[in-house]
Every structure is written in C-alpha cells, then in structure tokens.
Amino acid sequence: MTWALWESVHNWSPFEIDALGLVTLLGADEVNGAVGRLVKNAYLEYLPILGAFVIAGNQITNKAAGWHLYNISQGIHTTDLSAWLTRWMLSQDFETTRSFVIWKVTPPRSKWKDTIIALLISLIFNGFLIALTILSKDWYGFANALAMDISILVRVYVVGQQRAGVDARIDEVVKKAKSAPPEGTYEAARRAWLLQLDAKRREKEQSKRKGWSHSPGQHTNGGVIGRLGASRQDSIPPKHAEQQARALSPEAPIKHPRFDPSNFKDPDYEWTGTPTKVLIIQTDSKAVTFWMPQELLFPPSLFVEGPSLLHPRMYFVIRSIGWLAFAVHIVAIGMADLASQLYTVVLIVLPTLLLVLKFSCDDSRWVSTLQAWARKYLYRGLAGSERQSLADENASSSEPVTLRECWIGSRLKAEICEWPASYEFIETAPSTWSSGPPPKGRERSTRRQDLYAWLALSSAEEESMDKWDLFPHIRDDNTTWWQTYKKKKYCLKRNPTFGPQLKSDKASTADTTDDVPTSIFQTGRTKTVNFAVHTSDIHHHVQARKSSTVVSNSSAFPAISDHEHPQNVLNDTDAALTQSPTDGRGELPSAKASDTISTAASDPRPSSTGLKED
C-alpha cells in the first residue's frame, strides 16, 4: 500500500518513452574529452553523466593522431602523445603561438572538503531518485537508479587509477633524479622514504636468495646462485650505500611522510628538475611551449606513454562491471515510469553539460566568471574580462601573464601562462626591430617566427628545427625570413627569471675530437654566420659524423636532399661513407673537390690526401 502522492506518480503516464535508452549514447566524444583529461572536478565528481560506455570501454586511454612533440633541448621528435595530454590540451583553448605551460611537481594537495561536498551532492540527488522509485514501486526505475550508481563507482575507480598512476610515476621520477631535493622539503622526505622501501625490498630478496643457496639440491654460494647474488650486491650503486644503511637501521626508521606544512622548513618547495623546452603542435596547428623537467620525458613518460596501471586485473574487472551496469541502465530507463525517466534525464544531462564546460574544475575560471556576472548584473560594475584586461595592462610587461593552474593527479601541476607582453617585436625602421609592449590597440603576435625567436634556440637546436621542417626552406637565395628571425632573436630583451635564456654557442660547446656532432648534414643553410647580426651566435666547426650510407642517404631526412649536398668521405675506422660539412661559409663543394673524392673512393690504393680503404 503506497501513499496517495506516490500512487498518483506511479499512475501518471500521459505518454511513454520506450526508446529513451538511446539517450545514454549521446555526448560520447564530449565525455571522452572531459573525463580523459584527468582533472579533478570539485562538485560533479560523484554525479552520473552520459556515455557511461566510454568509461567501461576504456576509451579515455585511446591516443589521438596528428600530434607532434618536439623536445628541442634533446633533439627528439615523436608523434606518440599520451591520451590524457591531448585531451587536456584541447580543453585549454590555447592561443595560436603565445601559450606557455610550466610543469612542476608539488606536495600532494588535500581536497577533503571538496570530496565531502561532492559526496553530499551525490547523496541528495541520487538518493532522491532511489526514494522516488521505491515509494512509487517503480522497480524498473529502481534498477535504473542502481545501474547509474554503479556506473558512478566504476568511473571513480577508473579515473582514480589513472590519477594514481600519474602520482606513482612522479614518485619514481623524483626518486631517480640525479639532483636530490633540498633537505627540509616534502620531496626530500618522500624520496628518503621510497629509498628505504627499495632497500628493504632488496634486503628481503637477498635473504630469500641466500636461503635458496643453502637449501638441499641447490648450488652453494660458490655456485651459480651464489655468484649471481654476489654480482647483484656488487651492482648496487655506491652513492646510495649510506642511504641504504641508514634506511636499514632499525634505530632510525623513516615513516611515511604526511604533508603538513608545519613539519617542513620549505613547505612551498616545487620540484622543477632539469628545465627543458618542448614544443607541441596540436591538430589545429596551434604551437604550445612547455617548460618542464627533463626527467618527466624519460621513458616511460607520462607525456608519451601515459600512466601505468597499478592494478590491471582489478581494473579490467571493474570495467566489466561497468559494461553490465550500462546494459541494465539502457534497458531499465526505457521501462521505468515517466516521472523516473524525466528525473533521470535531467540528472544525467545537466552534470554532463557542466562537466564539459569545466564547471568547478581547476583548469577553468568559473569562480571569476561567476564573480564577473555578479558585478555586471547585480552591482553594475565592470565585467570580469574588462577588469582582467586592465590588470594585465597595468602589470609588469616583462612578466608572464598567468591565466590559471591545475593539477593532474595530486602532484603534477600545470601553470598556464602567456609569453610576456615585452616579448612583442616592433619594426622601428625597415629591417630594424626592437622588443617591447605592443602599442595600445594592436593584437599580440601569432607568428611562428616570433615564437622561434622567443625560444632562444642554440645553433644545435636550430639544426634540429630545420631537420624537422619547422623552418622554411630557402628558394632563389631568398634569406629574408632568416635575416629577420636572427634580428628578432638578438634584439629581444628577455626576462632573466622566466623561460628559455639565450646562451653563447661558443661557451656552451667545446670543440673536442671526441664530440659527436648534432647533425648528420651540412650546416650551411641554418648557419648563423650567413645571417649574422650578433657575433655570439657564430657556429662552431662541426666534425664529420661516423654513419653508414644507409643513414646518410635515407629519406627520413628530407631537408638534406632539399638544399644540402653532403660530401662523401671514407672513414678509416669502418670504411663507411660519411657526411662531413663544408667550410665555415656553408658553400657547396667544388667540382674539383668532388672529382678528388670520387677518385679516392673508387681507388683502393692509398692516396696522397690520406684517404684510404681498409
């Protein structure tokens, strides 16, 4: 026997929506991008959303094509970017060229207040649907509500495992970094704790191996196992010996570090590692600069391979449960009462819309947006965007404009900035450039040439950019682009505390006979001496690289055949044809020199020039 109110709700059915389950298939791409970027949401974390099959099918880990990551500092190019990174970048609405992202590692953030609020919101709205279906004896609606709740739990687990994988990889990177964090910081305490765990794990393995070596039917310490254990003990790096001894000492055990600002001398310390400049070209051709620790790019990198699962089997089981819950949800919602159907649609569509709009997310400016609306409509003040633009104009032009910041997981922090306004270029006279804030009313630059000048590229990095075809090729001896680029590069007044800094090539490179050159082709076209506007950018002489004819003639280097004529030289070590650069002027080898080299290559006898064939 039900109450009259709930009885009327149960019997109220002016029309039927039997195919309502198809609604759950909508918004799959939007949900994939919003959830897959792994940014935590303050209030919508435990509410149902559309496209539950996207989570169950693990589509949030599918990588996207058409992306390019250029590790300029190390000369590495890859098109394999992690799934979360591409989704996160597409959601940021970056500028064409002037977006600048600084990546740091911070102590873990405690967001228990947001978690409690999100749980209360979920309990209220999901609990009301369950109560509605029970009191009205709508058992299909009740099954639909339970399926939605299970889908929420599946999503929380799947996304939580991805974030936990990010945190675990961050721990490994900081632990294996060459330079240890300063004492009195959270990173130093956590690094010591991780080293203690590794030392105890090695001690346990060694004791187990020692027990095997003394067991009947096994070799003794003088046998195979004994020699293997001794070799592994000898292979332990000596620099960690003191740390291992201190970790294994029962007198001073290291506890799991809990982040409490009062327990650390420098609680605000952020680990930056070895700064590296990275350029990423998106599928929409936007060029975004990353200033990040080099260690984060070491394989397996969070930015290339993505996070590794800590519990892959349980991960698969939970996703299977998610598929089952989605199947029940898509059938039960079409069989439920009309009141349950309408409430369910509102309950899953509204949170999905807010999630896609990044409401209450770290990487959105929803708080300032709401404040701007309040000032505009309630207090008749300036809009937030106008106030922000005025603040940017009044701020120091040499400082970057920090737009927002967000966390991936609990420790990986991204600061989204723009290059300083003082980095803009102004043509004071024909072919004469200076740097400074742009005139009022003029828009900021969107030219790739200006971005390359901001990056403070060295000669080796310019060669890499040329090899990747990011620089234009010279046609009909037209070097206007190069001359303008060089002038902009050296007229720029840089902020010494922000981003890449220009260094002298002579000071940064030592000319030794054992150095391996950074390029396998001639440096004539990109050679700074050809477009010299500053004496500190003159190329040092690049020696011939030892490589095979397969590499030197490969089509993987299109810039070679386009404008370079490599000079073939026989190497006395491996008798392989290598490419050596021409003289400092970057000229092509003469016909006489080519004939001499060809004769030497075809004649196996020693020649007067010293070229010979083994």
SSE layout:
Layout: H1 4-11, H2 28-36, H3 52-56, E1 68-71, E2 76-78, H4 83-90, E3 99-105, H5 112-135, H6 139-176, H7 186-214, H8 224-234, H9 241-248, E4 275-281, E5 287-293, H10 312-335, H11 338-356, H12 366-377, H13 384-394, E6 401-408, E7 412-418, E8 425-429, E9 432-435, H14 448-454, H15 459-467, H16 480-491, H17 505-508, H18 549-552, H19 558-563, E10 567-570, E11 577-580, H20 591-602
Parallel strand pairs: 3-5
Antiparallel strand pairs: 1-2, 1-4, 3-7, 4-5, 6-7, 8-9, 10-11
Helix pairs in contact: 2-4, 5-6, 5-11, 6-10, 7-8, 7-9, 14-16
Structural class: alpha+beta
Low-confidence stretches: 218-242, 244-251, 381-395, 506-521, 535-614
Q: Tell me the fraction of residues in β-strands, as a range.
A: 5-15%
Number of helices: 20
Transmembrane segments: 116-135, 141-160, 316-336, 342-361
Biased composition (Basic and acidic residues): 253-268
Keywords: Membrane, Transmembrane, Transmembrane helix
Region (Disordered): 205-268, 544-614
Tell me about this structure.
The chain has 614 residues and is an alpha+beta fold. Among the domains are: 15-179 and 269-390, no CATH class; 421-501, no CATH class. The chain is built from 20 helices and eleven strands. It has helices spanning 4-11, 28-36, 52-56, 83-90, 112-135, 139-176, 186-214, 224-234, 241-248, 312-335, 338-356, 366-377, 384-394, 448-454, 459-467, 480-491, 505-508, 549-552, 558-563, 591-602, and strands at residues 68-71, 76-78, 99-105, 275-281, 287-293, 401-408, 412-418, 425-429, 432-435, 567-570, 577-580. It has a seven-stranded mixed beta sheet. A hairpin with a 2-residue loop joins strand 8 (425-429) and strand 9 (432-435).
